[in-house]
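User: I'm putting together a teaching handout on how multi-component assemblies are represented. Below are the sequence lines for each component of a complex, exactly as they appear in our records. Could you produce the 3D structure of the whole assembly as structure tokens, so the students can see both representations side by side? Please keep the chain order the same as the input.
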Amino acid sequence: KNEVEQSPQNLTAQEGEFITINCSYSVGISALHWLQQHPGGGIVSLFMLSSGKKKHGRLIATINIQEKHSSLHITASHPRDSAVYICALHTGTASKLTFGTGTRLQVTL
Amino acid sequence: DTGVSQDPRHKITKRGQNVTFRCDPISEHNRLYWYRQTLGQGPEFLTYFQNEAQLEKSRLLSDRFSAERPKGSFSTLEIQRTEQGDSAMYLCASSFGGSRAGELFFGEGSRLTVL
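Assistant: Of course. Below is the structure of the complete assembly, with chains in the same order as your input.
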């Protein structure tokens, strides 16, 4: 079993829809990252969470440490949100991240 | 500072050739990471530097791979005698360390194609 699993793997939504991407993990963590990767390959860090909830614009990230689960929400989705969203765990020594395989989001007009 | 930069962005090489990638991190960051990403997969950790010291290497980093960060600033990742299985995106990231450890900043990646 992978240490971190994301669902769904692929998601298609219409512009304006509310989107939720889930991340479950099985190990102890010091923090969890949500990252966005566009087709060109570059990765942008969206959030780093160790508890509770964070909000930035239309993006909201929550984490439940007891349940080992995090969610990324996108409100009022837009085609420019189309990307791969990756959950990554910061464990132990914080020397590296363990990445999920990502959720590919396509937002259509 | 313009962020983390990587060079070259794309490299096509023949099997058996050596390739070298360069990463220039954000100047204030003392931690630098190399990751490898193959199609449809999340990035996998390769190695990590704190200043000029290479503190951790993944078992993915075979003897053909070597990374350096000689002055604690830019880093190079060299792959010797490339194989087709080395074809991937090589990502560099940097961050603060110690009490300021946290958010990672990624470069755009260097895509390697081995023919």
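A couple of points students might notice: Chain A touches chain B through 22 residues (CB under 8 Å). Chain A has a mean pLDDT of 92.
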